[in-house]
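Please review the protein record below. Tell me whether the encoded fold seems credible here:
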Amino acid sequence: SRNAVSIMPGVTTINKLQDLLIILCRLNKMALGDSIVVVGYVMKWTREKDFLKRGAFPILPTSNGLTFISINLDLLLIPQLQVVDLVLHKATDEIFSIDKDQSLSISEGVRFSDGIQQLQRYMEDMHYFMIDPVENIIPLLDRAATQIILQNLVEINDPRHCRIRTPNYLKISSFNEPDLAEKLDQAQLLLPAIVKPQISCGVSDAHIMAVIFKKEDFVDLPVPLPAVLQIQAGTGDH
């Protein structure tokens, strides 16, 4: 069995070391009841390690009643989910592949690992609460879709608060388009500007970018396609 088994009152046998944190969380919940909230989190180990070095994700309850436990996607999920109240994830660490077929939207081409897909199913079936459900973050993997989201947010600008500004942008399918200069003018894009892959995360070349100072710089540009060209209107910000 992968689960701890109680063999007598007050004594618990732990068959696997991975079960230890689950048992500690369960005991904390039994002792403290609703005064603590157990947050299960999912992310790659290197990212988790950086957080742990800064003292994040403590197993012992914090002053505001939060305690954290890492969810291991390689183990049975149900015993782990049974001790958590909500799930925090970095699902983009678990992207298996992204289909770059330009006939598809990025959201249609994203495939997550089996572990994340199984976690999604359990979250839906068992009515657990997930911070930023996976389906809600998929548009943010698409820089062009993100621009549209930001443009729509401009409508809620309130002069009493910080202003939401969206950069002018242009989606590019080829750097050799004969009317590229005309499209730049229509999009009100002045050089210099920055060119980024449309896919923002989850693939090895998502962060290959280039700054374009003149139109001739588009020739043999190594940025993966499709790409997004953008500049903050009226400023030098990118």
Notes: The chain has a mean pLDDT of 80. Residues 143 and 198 are 5 Å apart (CA to CA). Residues 19-32 form the longest helix (14 residues).
